[in-house]
TrEMBL record:
Keywords noted in UniProt: Membrane, Transmembrane, Transmembrane helix
Protein name listed in UniProt: Uncharacterized protein
TM region positions: 6-22
Statement: the UniProt record of this protein carries the keyword Transmembrane: yes
Amino acid sequence: MKKWKFVIIGVIGISIVVFMYKQHQTILEYRQIPYYSLELLASPIGKVIELHENDDNYEDDERKEMLEDLNVMFSTIFNRAGVGLTTEQKIYDKYYDEYNDARADFAVILEKYMAAETPEQHEQAYKALKEVYDEYQLFLEQAAEDLMLPDPTLQ
């Protein structure tokens, strides 16, 4: 009879520990949503910059198709991203203005890049895009320090 009590208490104890671990993981994931919303915006822009820097590796038609796909990707993200910033008012107040400014800058400069017809226009738009992208990466580094909680199970 005592063995069964220990077995039942052990199962209950293990269940509680597993439940607490899962709850902690959920909290970590929830806290990371705002950062991933911020990070998502820069993803297609980084790919456009990478495509421009490796321009020699692609044919003109292939490059144009890739740019169009990245433009569609950015448009989709532009219209839908940022929702994660609304999880907490404090986070929204602190990060939304800079996020929204970068979002608008990316959209305007990407439009200029897509519409550029001469190599000089492409280069000028690329430099502007790279500058805003680099500034946004610094913003993301600061946001990561604040928003990304360390996982204590990895320490």
